[in-house]
Amino acid sequence: MSSSSSSSSSPSLPAPELPLKPVPGDWGHRFFGPIRDRLAYFYSEGRDDFFSNRIQKYKSTVFKTNMPPGPFISSSPRVICLLDSVSFAVLFDTSKVEKRDVLDGTYLPSLDYTGGLRVCAYLDPSEQKHSSLKYLFMTTLATRHNKFIPLFQTCLSQLFNDLESEISTKKKASFNTLSDAMSFNYVFRLLCDNKDPTETKLGSKGPKLVDKWLLFQLAPIGSLGVLPSGLGFLEDVMLRTFAFPFFLVKSDYQKLYDAFYDFGGSILDEAEKLGIDRDEACHNLVFLAGFNAYGGMKVLFPGLIKWVALAGEKLHKKLAEEIRSVVKAEGGVTFSALEKMVLTKSVAYEFLRIDPPVPFQYGKAKTDLVVQSHDAAFEIKKGEMLFGYQPFATKDPKVFENPEEFVADRFVGEGEKLLKYVYWSNGRETEDVAAENKTCPGKNLVVLLCRVLLVELFLRYDTFEVDATVFMFAASVTFKSLTKASNT
Predict the structure, then answer these.
(1) InterPro entries given for it (predicted)?
(2) 62 membership: H or E segment, kind and range
(3) Is residue 239 part of a domain?
(4) Handedness of CA 269, 272, 274, 280 (dihedral sign)
(5) Does residue 136 lie within any of the structural domains?
(6) What is the CATH number for 460?
(7) How far is CA 242 from the centre of its chain?
(8) Is the distance from CB of 285 to CB of 268 less than 8 angstroms?
(9) In 415-477, which residue ranges form alpha helices assigned H by DSSP?
């Protein structure tokens, strides 16, 4: 992986008058078509090849297909794929697309998993409750911004100590396991007035409780990847014949709810001032903490470590030099210092571009509309489900040079102009979070934490080596070595 500078080509904007074409592709038989497509998607082709093969087949980045889970869990698996940076952007326009109950695409987990409520992530911005809940989340984060960096540094210190200890005794260390524990600890302490979750009834089981709760919701749209491809149909039957029943995790969820109810009182008090029922606020808090924050970090941190590790020692040296010189000049790791680390910032954005932690976006057309790609226009009918696979939009070769390559300084200098094509947060990187849109309320915090992770890593170490594979939705990272900083 190169970390050398690469000038990016100017994006091809849609021509004023593009040919109007019917959307190519087919959904097939209402029952067998979705099964055909999901077997190809998970097993015979694999996710990326599934999309790239159809782009080649239809000579179009916009086409019809089915998305999992399909029968018997989802009654409406038909979607229109938007796989370039131009067409993908319509998914952020809530005047054209509805975001009601589409978080997991063509499938909505039982509301039992969220206390019988449609939490904020399932709401469309046109619904009044969406604005009040998202405003609550935004103010919650805003009032805690001074805790973001010091609390994360404390949690990272324990993570690195544990990594060193495991490598010392076992010659390797599972980063995911340690990162999950660190992430849950950080999220809980941030939202619950610095209460350590291990000092509550959760003990050290918090991450495992959330993992099980997440798995039961997301299993129908994922793959465990533990069976040979020829036996994939067995996993398909196991995961996608019936949705997993909530009662199997009911007690786990109740423990999480009770912990946040007991120690998230300051947030719940604020919710009541906004007219939000305390019980409803707590279920939303559990979802924010468990699904949005911790669930995102399960993917985010291993992915970042993987890509930086693959970029190699040359990039590690450049990052270490920048980070240490700025921290020395600024007298510590501050918001101001982080803004001066241009390469570190670019690395975080490049990771979010090449491997966005949430790769899927969905929305239903609110009216009949026309969607443009780079070279054609397509009529979409009201009620049709639009689907975007984010890594294809953010690796659009008509926007980015060498789109499949991790270019560490891609967003340095003039490259910053390309940030409007980085879509990882359910919106453009250049757009602000607002109660009226669906942009992730923690968008800026995510970028900040990625940068602080790199800073703390290279303040302690000169370089490191990992082995990386994929499990479910995330990179699975095992540290093989950590070389301590030569100047300490």
Answers:
(1) Cyt_P450, Cyt_P450_E_grp-IV, Cyt_P450_sf
(2) strand 62-66
(3) yes
(4) positive
(5) yes
(6) 1.10.630.10
(7) 26
(8) yes
(9) 443-460
Q: Write out the residue range of the structural domain in which residue 410 sits.
A: 20-484
DSSP 176-227: HHHHHHHHHHHHHHHHTTT--GGGSTTTT-HHHHHHHHHHHHHGGG-----S
Return the residue matching tokens 């409780």: 209
Site of tokens 């490049």: 350
DSSP 8: P
Give the count of domains, the chain: 1
Phi, psi (rounded to 5 degrees) for 469? -130, -170
3-state secondary structure 341-367: CHHHHHHHHHHHHHCCCCCEEEEEECC
Does 120 appear as a known binding residue?
Answer: no
The token pair at 471 is 């499990």
Which position has the token pair 């805003």? Answer: 142
Each residue of 122-169: pLDDT tens digit? 999 999 999 999 999 999 999 999 999 999 999 999 999 999 999 999
313-330 and 295-311 helices, crossing angle to 10°: 110
Q: What does the buried/exposed string (b/e) look like for 306-331 if buried means 16 or more CB atoms within 10 Å of the residue's CB? A: bbbbebbeebbebbbebbbebbeebe
Closest CA to 415 of 2, 7, 3, 4: 7
SS3 85: helix
pLDDT in tens, 380-402: 999 999 999 999 999 999 999 99
Distance (Å, whole) CA 117 – CA 25: 36
